[in-house]
Amino acid sequence: MNDTPEDLIGLAEAAAMAERSTATIRRWVRLKTLTRYEGPPARHGGSSVVLVSRAELLSYLVEAGQQPRQSQPQPQPSVHPEQLVQGSTDERSADVIIVELRARIAAEQAKTELATLMLKLEHAEQELHTERLATSRLQTALANASTELAVVRDKLDASEARGRALGEALRQADVRAAVAEQRAAFESGRTWWRRLVGGPVAGLPGEE
């Protein structure tokens, strides 16, 4: 989270508002009476620009019983982007420094948000890959189940065929048994001379 206030001003403008010298403002910053904020350093070396909060300065002046002087708006010269980090820190416009600082903060925030989005995208791709693997495994399991079902159906058809064949064999066996039983009964009812002759004889009693 960015805690940098949006009303930062340079030491020169702060000294003009407080009707003090820049050395006094620096002493207040050193004593932590005012919070120190740093702008970007100059490109060709030098220390970072010291900034303070306009609202914090006004609050301190009011508590100290001093009426702050309202700073007069100064026309801003046209500054080329390459000149934003050049020149003496005392001569640089505080507003330009603040704009540059905000731009850098915004760029860092954009990089952080982009990195977060890339991380979310990577996680989404991993989850999609996992879902695809699970779907592939499910399809393979379904295919195996279909194959096993076909095998079971073939076995069931073969069992039914064997059952029908066995039933037919039993039926034929029953018929043969019945025929044998009837023949045995017939043979047991014939007299000895009929069994000796081997069949009916014309003219014998009981033969028609």
Total number of distinct structural domains: 2
> Over all CA atoms, what is the radius of gyration?
56 Å
By secondary-structure content and strand pairing, the structural class works out as mainly alpha
Approximately how much beta-strand content do the residues carry?
under 5%
* CA-based shape: rod-shaped
Helix residue percentage: 55-70%
Distance between the first and last residues' Cα: 128 Å
Largest sheet: 3 strands, antiparallel
Q: Report the strand count.
A: 3
Tally of helical runs: 5
Secondary-structure element series: EHHEEHHH
* Rounded average pLDDT: 77
State the low-pLDDT regions, or none.
71-91
Oligomer: single chain
User: Numbering strands along the chain, what is their spatial order in the largest sheet?
Assistant: 1-3-2
Summarize the structure.
By secondary structure, the protein is mainly alpha-helical.
Describe this structure in words.
The chain is mainly alpha-helical. The protein has 2 domains: 8-70 and 88-92, no CATH class; 106-191. The protein has helices at residues 11-18, 22-30, 54-63, 94-189, 192-197, and strands spanning 8-10, 37-38, 50-53. It has a 3-stranded antiparallel β-sheet. Helix 1 packs across helix 2. The longest helix has 96 residues, at 94-189. It is rod-shaped, with a radius of gyration of 56 Å.
